[in-house]
Amino acid sequence: MGQIALEGMEFFAFHGYYDEEQKIGNKYGVDLYIDTDLHAAGASDKLHETVNYEVLYRVVTEEMLAPARLLEHLGHRVMDRVLEEFPYIEGVRVSVSKFNPPLGGICHRARVTLERRRA
Predict the structure, then answer these.
(1) Is 98 designated active site?
(2) Fewer C-beta within 10 Å: the chain N or C terminus?
(3) Quick one: CA dihedral 58, 84, 41, 113, positive or negative?
(4) What EC number(s) are associated with this protein in UniProt (predicted)?
(5) Please, which pLDDT band fits residue 57 given cuts at 50, 70 and 90?
């Protein structure tokens, strides 16, 4: 077993509870962690034996393009897509951050972290 991580992905997207947030957009961060068996890839040095980072990044990018009201909803969509694209992975954890959320004061980011394991 092992873990693959894509950390510090940044996007400008149009998510938010308020309509105005969905119009003006904001900067978001995503960290993605995949638990999977990495032994075959380690032995073979073949890309098809592991999770392709480019495909992971594409999945996150596609989900970031579709507006969501809540970070929780966005995180669940990312997990759903990752589990769908990679049926052999054991689990996924995602953190989604909104930079400078409109809270009426100073807050660098709001973040949710979600995790799911296969049944």
Answers:
(1) yes
(2) C
(3) positive
(4) 4.1.2.25
(5) very high
Amino acid at 97: S
**Contact of 11 with 98, CB cutoff 8 Å:** no
Please check whether the domain covering 2-117 is classified as CATH 3.30.1330.30: no
Instruction: Kindly name the residue from 23, 27, 46, 98 that is annotated as catalytic.
Output: 98
> How many Cβ atoms are within 10 Å of 63's Cβ, its own excluded?
23
Of 61, 48, 57, 51, the C-alpha closest to 11 is 61
The per-residue pLDDT for range 59-86, each reduced to its tens digit, is 999 999 999 999 999 999 999 999 999 9
Rounded average pLDDT over 1-23: 96
pTM for this one?
0.94
The continuous run of DSSP H or E covering 62 comes out as: helix 53-65
Q: For residues 39 and 24, give the distance between their C-alpha atoms in angstroms, rounded to a whole number.
A: 45
